[in-house]
Design goal:
Number of helices: 1
Strand order of the largest sheet: 1-2-3-4
Distance between the termini: 20 Å
Shape: globular
Number of strands: 7
Bound molecules: zinc ion
Helix content: under 10%
Radius of gyration: 12 Å
Order of helices and strands: EEEEHEEE
Length: about 90
């Protein structure tokens, strides 16, 4: 798993390698008012793309990979990826 986020400022699908984050152009407009979708993140383990919410971007709640065959769970902390310890 990569340990640091790579932040893209432009949507370039070919560059969405593992651990790449792209902030949505309409960040905050989609999803729940409480915790709207904020960015697209490529899983740091398997590169599966998924939408993440504002609370996930700031590290309040963990990101869980959307792929069925990938167990990745992690927090985002200051552009770093912290693997979530099993509790
Ligand atoms: Zn994954």
């Amino acid at each position: 798993m990569v340990a640091e986020l790579n932040i893209l400022s432009e949507w370039i699908p070919e560059q969405m390698g593992p651990g790449t984050l792209f902030v949505l152009e309409n960040a905050g407009d989609v999803g729940e008012n409480e915790d709207p979708y904020w960015a697209v993140l490529s899983c740091p383990e398997c590169a599966t793309l998924g939408l993440i919410t504002r609370k996930q971007v700031v590290g309040l709640i963990p990101v869980i990979c959307g792929s069925d065959c990938c167990p990745a769970q992690f927090f985002i902390k200051d552009e770093e990826i912290k693997v979530r310890k099993p509790s």
